[in-house]
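Practice problem: predict the structure.
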Amino acid sequence: MDLYSFHEISPGAAFWHPKGMIIFKELEKLIREALDKQDYQEISTPIMVRKDLFEKSGHFKFFKEMMYSLKADTQTFVLKPMNCPESTIIYSSKVRSWRDLPLKFSEIGRLHRNELSGVLNGLFRVRQITMDDAHIYVRPNQLLEEIDRLILLINGFYKIFGFKTSYHLATRPDKAMGDKELWDKAEEALAQALKKNKIKYELEPKEGAFYGPKIEIHVKDSLNRSWQLGTIQVDFNMAEKFNLGFVNQKGEKEKPVVIHRAVFGSFERFIGILVENYQGAFPVWLSPVQVKILPVGSRHEKYAKKVCAELLKNNIRAELDDANETIGKKIREAELEKIPYILVVGDKEEKSSAVAVRQRGKTGIATEKLEKFKSKILSEIEKKS
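Answer:
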């Protein structure tokens, strides 16, 4: 389907082709629109930073073997394997008040992790990762309410794709950072939120991150395989490590709680799952090409170009196939590409400003006025149906 490829010159990193980038951008648009409605503020942080930051956060101690290090200007830098420590730099750039919280920083960040070559696996296990990350700074009494919102956000996203979800609560690992009492508080908050939402979950002992426990959301694809995607992690430790604070109602400095969350998990894995789940037959809103226009003969090309231009003008991703081939061959090729709609135009369609519509997965052809077809597909795109 010409979406992406992998090459030995950069093992574990996808080369995204134009059609693959359409899917990537549609997912970015989807998450950004949802977060804008929930008062998130998008940030962007450097890919390369001095290792001091990750030593301070604890990542260099617990995650060093997964990090790429390099020397520059007599100092050691790392390619960031996660976004969270750099989020604290922006949080600390000014004095925060209790009125500012919850403060929600989202970031679509490019990360690098030194995965062993033997475990690399297409889009499912890569060294270059694009995370739809967010770090939410809350007052302690806002914690449960914010976890509730995140559960609703993530569930809403997965319903768009028809995924069945299961929930897991991952608790303190043997190698963990911070006071056990804080861990117990964090685990209890996550468990309470799950119970409040009447969500059954499995306990995953000792499977939390080194800085905090987490809810993991697993989905099942069309082949009934389970994948771990979204996460909600409660972290009392980062505020301690970076001396984060806000001025409370009494005028005193108080430490926030940090929630780390991801919805897609990573764009790479999520798109890999979608490709296999839909077996290439993406829903209309996500399809790289939504409509293919096929003129019956060369004399119909002028009208076919007019149809294509009208669809493109309305932001419908349309392509014209004006190859010197039989109409039967053009239809077969468009079907192999799994295009949602094939529009065939000949004498009859040109005379009545219509199109002959072949819809993917359905037999038969329906002749419709171009305006009617345009309204129908725009409605499908808007509803994500």
